[in-house]
Design goal:
This protein is an alpha/beta fold. It has nine helices and 13 strands.
């Protein structure tokens, strides 16, 4: 199997290579692509330099393409890659809402990937971190309503967002003024309740992505969800406070035990020991931390919880690789003659 990474020099691209280093995915060839300005540079993979190529105008000679070069590139080029015989696992928002494109979190709806027509969409990072906890609770107790507040790191805006936070924080600490380009306002020592563009209903597109994508992944188009998305001045990991109104009442102990058995999650919930999900501990980790599980004071029999997960890993690169691993385990990908 020939594997390609498009957008290899970006923040998610670098994480894809790190995840592939540890992955069980079997492939015989790795190709790296990026914009023309990055062509000719090299990236290390398993101790060997791999030359980055300019993304071609047409087909790519690969069986599987992990695409992370942005929505406009994917929308234009992914159909050409599919026509050339490639399966595209796309990290952008280009195809997430297309009815004939599966939107996949392998721990929850991996079987949806088997019905692809050449393109599989990777969900939004905020959705992935939240839905790992919400989906098993929905299956066990039925979620009537979900109210979600997010605390999203600078990494959500890519490498440029993280660089801007560091640089502008240094400016403030040295007595200067913080500027901004990646964000609507300066981020150091601030938080911004504005991610992506505002919609006609007063919510931002980031907030609506959580609504649309959660419904699609769990297969419940009528689930009532409200989200407020906030950018906070940390480098990595998104965190979210989740309030759930349940059809069948649940106790915190029951929910904790359910979440302990749910793949992709790590229960961190010991208030007396000051243990709970945090970006400090979830950054760089594959599992999403979940804790602060408690009875709702608003919804009778409902549950409140808090999650934190690495936006660049489970929120992007890791999930894309896990989709490919799932397909290979199911015999739905070509078998490599030898592992890279």
């Amino acid at each position: 199997m020939r594997l390609a990474v498009v957008g290899a020099t970006g923040a998610v691209g670098h994480e894809l290579l790190k995840v592939l280093e540890r992955s069980s995915l079997k492939f015989s060839e790795l190709q790296l692509y990026a914009s023309p300005r990055s062509a000719g540079s090299t990236l290390m993979f398993r101790g060997q330099p791999v030359t980055v190529q300019a993304t071609p105008e047409g087909a790519i000679p690969a069986d599987v393409i992990l695409a992370s070069a942005g929505g406009s590139v994917s929308r234009e080029k992914a159909p050409l890659w599919v026509k050339g015989g490639s399966l595209v696992i796309d990290n952008s928002s280009a195809f997430r809402y297309d009815d004939d494109v599966p939107l996949v979190c392998p721990e929850i709806n991996g079987e949806a990937a088997l019905g692809h027509r050449g393109i599989i969409a990777n969900p939004n990072c905020t959705t992935l971190i939240e839905v790992l906890a919400l989906a098993p609770i929905h299956r066990a107790y039925g979620v009537r309503r979900a109210i979600i507040s997010t605390y999203q790191s600078a990494s959500g805006a890519g490498a440029k967002g993280m660089e801007e936070l560091l640089e502008e924080t240094r400016n403030v600490l040295s007595g200067g003024q913080a500027g901004h380009q990646a964000f609507a306002h300066p981020l150091p020592f601030n938080l911004i309740p504005h991610i992506d563009v505002f919609q006609d209903n007063g919510y931002t597109k980031e907030e609506m992505k959580v609504v649309w994508e959660t419904r699609k992944i769990i297969g419940d188009p009528d689930l009532k969800i409200s989200c407020t998305a906030v950018r906070v001045p940390i480098l990595r990991s998104h965190s979210e406070a989740i309030s759930l109104d349940l059809e069948k009442p649940a106790t915190p102990d029951e929910v904790r035990e359910l979440l302990r058995r749910s793949p992709g999650l790590k229960v961190v919930d010991d208030p007396e020991g000051n243990l709970y999900p945090m970006p400090l501990t979830s950054s760089g980790e594959y599992d999403v931390e979940v804790g602060r599980v408690r009875a709702s004071l608003v919804f009778d029999g409902g549950i409140e919880l808090f999650v934190s997960g690495d936006q660049l890993l489970k929120g992007a690169a890791l999930n894309a690789v896990q989709i490919a691993e799932y397909l290979q385990e199911k015999g739905a990908l070509k078998t490599a003659a030898s592992a890279t």
